[in-house]
Amino acid sequence: MGVMTAIVPDQDLAQAIETLKRSQAMLEPVLASFERRLRQFGADPKSAFWKNKEWQTRRYDILSRLFDDADRQGGVTITDYGCGYGAFFDYLQDRPVMDASRYIGIDMSAAMIAEAEARIRDPRVSLRRHLIATEDADYTFACGTYNMNLGADRDEWAAYVKASLSQLWSKTRKALGFNMLRSDTPEKYPGFFYADGREFLEFCKRTLSPDVAFTDDRPLPDWTIFVRR
Description:
The protein is an alpha/beta fold and 229 residues long. The chain is built from six helices and eight strands; from the N terminus they run ααβαβαββαββαββ. It has a single domain, classed as Vaccinia Virus protein VP39 (Rossmann fold, 3-Layer(aba) Sandwich).
């Protein structure tokens, strides 16, 4: 394993993969829900259960702070885990960071990937239907990917999220950024997972890297964590 790739121990990574395999049945209702929304709304923030495009863009503004200054002029590989119909690429496509860069969109939904493929005809883009990252990238993002659990057991869902983050980190050369809904947000909706940021901050520090940053994204109901090599 190369110096710039995974630091997650092989045994821990194998356990994470097993957890992800066991989680597939738990994810089936979530997958069905997203595909219903896609049929209803098409390539729209509502398909991903975002409040509106403005709040979707705010999240991308926050996540894009992950890029190192030297990489903002492009020449990097970016994984978007839970890419949906490709909205994050829409946000990035004309920015300098995409100059000579590659975007890898991953989603568990065949319908979402098909929608992204129909919309995006760009040689910088590769799209994959998968539950894991299958190739190395400089930067990995997961925006809202873990928010909807449709009433799944809280501990089982948290274990799935941590396993997913461990697997993504094993394929990340420079930095990983992800957001989740705050457990202390005053307005909660059924079917969504509201996470304690301290729990995931400690998990990332203990399991992934000591170089971790946390932001409270109010007025968004989110927090964001950046993990760096």
